[in-house]
Design goal:
The protein is mainly beta. The protein contains two helices and eight strands. The strands form two sheets. The chain has a four-stranded antiparallel β-sheet. The chain starts with 9 loop residues before the first strand and ends with a helix.
């Protein structure tokens, strides 16, 4: 018998600002926000074109409880975004996985 499923988080991936791209050269950061989570624990990972990231990548995450008693997880991916790729923020809560993807062409658009 399965337990009740948790409501899905609201996922948003933010591209780097023009100012941060100018100051950091080819290295840039993407921000993934997983909002409106009913629990404060989830596994967050990043994929490039569907494959896990490893070399040349820095990932940091933080959890914060919101005034409405839900949780928000923020995850930053910092790497060279010079290649044309699709980056996916993957959030696993319990046995459910949720994804949000952004392409590098969206990261360089003004």
């Amino acid at each position: 018998m399965q337990g009740p499923s948790l409501p899905p988080p609201v996922l948003t991936v933010y591209r780097p600002s023009a100012a941060s791209r100018l100051s950091s050269g080819p290295r840039a950061s993407l921000l993934c926000l997983a909002r409106r989570m009913s629990i404060g624990f989830a596994e967050v990972s990043w994929l490039a074109d569907g494959s896990p990231l490893a070399d040349g990548t820095s990932i940091s995450s933080a959890v914060a409880q919101q005034p409405d008693k839900t949780f928000q997880i923020s995850s930053y991916l910092s790497r060279d975004l010079g290649e044309d790729r699709n980056y996916t923020c993957q959030v696993t809560v319990g046995s459910s996985t949720f994804r949000k993807t952004i392409s590098t062409s969206e990261c360089t658009a003004e």
